[in-house]
Amino acid sequence: MTSSNPGAAPTIEQQICYAMVTTVRAFDAVYRDLLGEHGLSYPQYIALMAVGEHGPLTVGALGEVMRLDSGTLSPLLKRMEAAGLVGRTRDPADERRVLVELTAAGRERLAAVAEVPRTIAARSGLSLTQLAELRGTLDQMTAALETRGD
Predict the structure, then answer these.
(1) Taking the model in full, what pTM does it have?
(2) Which residues pair with 94 in a beta bridge?
(3) d(CA 48, CA 116)
(4) Which residues on adjacent β-strands are paired with residue 86?
(5) Which H or E run includes 90?
(6) What is the pLDDT of residues 22-57, one digit of tens each?
(7) Distance (Å, rounded) from C-alpha 2 to C-alpha 48?
(8) CA distance 129 to 65
(9) Fewer Cβ atoms within 10 A, N terminus or C terminus of the chain?
(10) What is the DSSP letter of 13?
């Protein structure tokens, strides 16, 4: 992010946020194509993955994993439940909590999209080592921004 004029503000093309937004848009387009074939949106895919990996999760825990607030997560889960992908039940240990778990159809859909991460990796143009390094850098940046944002 250096400019030819040291006192000048970086151009839009030199801004890291601009590079990240354009990368996210490119990812969105690829995911939309790959997941659209299976009737899934990206948030639905992430929810299926989270619940599939961690087993039944409370709505709150799922929100933490997905980094979504309940106002965004609840309508998403309602649509997924209507589509038969997840079920929501009261936690027998604590009736105040709602558990989200995959249905048989949700497990089938998750299995059907199992190749998506490999396809994304291949289409990224980066090696697996480069992708792992990038992931580490992005995690580090996210943590720094979240703790120093105020």
Answers:
(1) 0.84
(2) 91
(3) 13
(4) 102
(5) strand 86-91
(6) 999 999 999 999 999 999 999 999 999 999 999 899
(7) 41
(8) 24
(9) C
(10) G
